[in-house]
Amino acid sequence: MNSEKIQKYIGYVIKTLFTMLALLMVLSVVHIETNKKSPEEIAKILEDTKELRRALVKKARYGNENLPKPWPAKMNSPYPDMAMFDQEGKEFTLSSLKGRIIVIEFIDISSPKSQAQSGAGLFGPYYASASSDIDKYTQTFSQVLRKNSASSAMLPNDNVVELKIIVYGENGDAGSRDDAQNWAKHFDLKKSDNVIVAVPKKDIRGNESASLIAGFQLIDKNMLLRVDSSGPSPKHSLAMTFVPLMSKLMNR
Q1: Cα 140 from chain centre
Q2: Residue 227's CB: how many other CB atoms inside 10 A?
């Protein structure tokens, strides 16, 4: 069983246990309350309990309903669209970038690897409590591209957008517009250099999104996912697969 399946299985078990615990708590409350209430009030409590049980079961079955469909994106298929806010607070959609190559990266602010990919080696950690040590082995995408490709495939390039999506903010909260603005400011990431730091309009936290943290994905000009080097167990090598195809697409 590969790591992705294991992760999904663990997520399913956790959701199931959460649902069972929540139901037990609800039933305990109902038991206590029914000894104090009139028959009409008891009927109302039981009906409310049924509604809550249905909601809990639905949540356990479907997880975060804000997630784009399908999620994570499927290889060689159209990338799911989503609405976001950039570092200037402007709303945009992923599909609005169609016609350009997109290097997409999902970020957890507290992750030393996410910070390193944005330039912590040059600018220092985003904030001291998030990372006392800098990940010295992880490089920005520009550094990886420069090291592994011809000089004709350098960034910034008007045909390429680097899209950094903050999924997790401080303390595991959903990324905020302030996070996007402050992250861009700290690491000197500018839209004029075709680098967009964004946060999803809707909260997309969950096991599926967490599996994409660190690393990069390559979306071509037709919005197809062509290479997936994201997450703890990347499907493709960044140096051997991602960079060569990236260089090829840039020179077309």
Answers
A1: 18
A2: 24
Q: Which of 8-17, 158-167, 174-183 shows the lowest mean pLDDT across its residues? A: 8-17
**What gap in Å lies between CA 9 and CA 3, rounded to an integer?**
10
Beta-ladder partners of 104: 163, 217
Single out the residue of 92, 107, 122 nearest to residue 191, CA to CA.
92
CA-derived radius of gyration, the chain:
22
| Cβ count within 10 A of residue 237 | 12
Tokens in use for 88?
């200037």
Q: pTM here? A: 0.75
Q: How far apart are CA 71 and CA 66, in angstroms?
A: 10
As a whole number of angstroms, the distance between CA 220 and CA 99 comes to: 8
Cβ-based neighbours of 139, under 8 Å, separated by 6 or more: 116, 117, 121, 147
Torsion angle (degrees, nearest 10) of CA 114, 64, 20, 48: 140
Residue with tokens 């030393």: 112
- In this prediction, residue 51 has a pLDDT band, given cuts at 50, 70 and 90, of low
